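Aggregate trends can hide what the representation actually does to any particular protein. The sequence in question and its structure tokens are set out directly beneath this paragraph.
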Amino acid sequence: MTSQINTTRKINKDVKLDQTKSELIKVSTSFYQRGWMLGTSGNLSILIEENPLQFLITVSGKDKGELTEDDFILVNESGVIARSNSDEAISIGIASPSARNDTSSVKPSAETLLHSAIYKHVGAKAVFHVHTTNSTLLSMKSGDKIIFSDLEMLKGLGLKTHDVKITIPIIENSQDMKYLATIAPNYINEDVPGLLLKGHGIYAWGKSPQEAKRHVEIFEFLFEYRMKELALEKM
């Protein structure tokens, strides 16, 4: 009986993984076509299990306009590659090639730990990171935050009215992802599903992949609005 239950769980999880990969490919293609994930930039993840925490994330170094189902990997909260069909976990860069089997030539996005920190802090179901020109430019010119108010599109972030002011935090970028994952929760505004890394782009999340995608789109509208607003002020 226990064996049957375990087999059923494995089948259900494998089906969920396949469905999640397809969904991530659609999102990645959409973002790529808009110029938000050019080349190998950006990374996307979707939660698979809450306890223990596991999420599917894009592998490192792949063209986001040409992702296949082989370009995602399951990891746990420590950024350790997990096998979907067992309780085994493979520590990135530590396990021997024979132990890693089909995972030997791939590794998760370098920013996996930041995704993990967001999942643990806000209870998100999906985390999307894109490198848009507008978000990157504004993050370099706006100090430690960007403020928006009185815009109807703010409702797309889950707010009930346009008559509100939101603050999007900007964090100094670092190549030390463990450090960023440690400090990021201190900057997250619980009412705003996103944060900026200076010179790097926007991280947005949601209670579903669809919501996370919508939040990326709303943020990019806000950033484009601000860029055009600043241009008009100079005329």
Summary: The chain has six helices and ten strands.
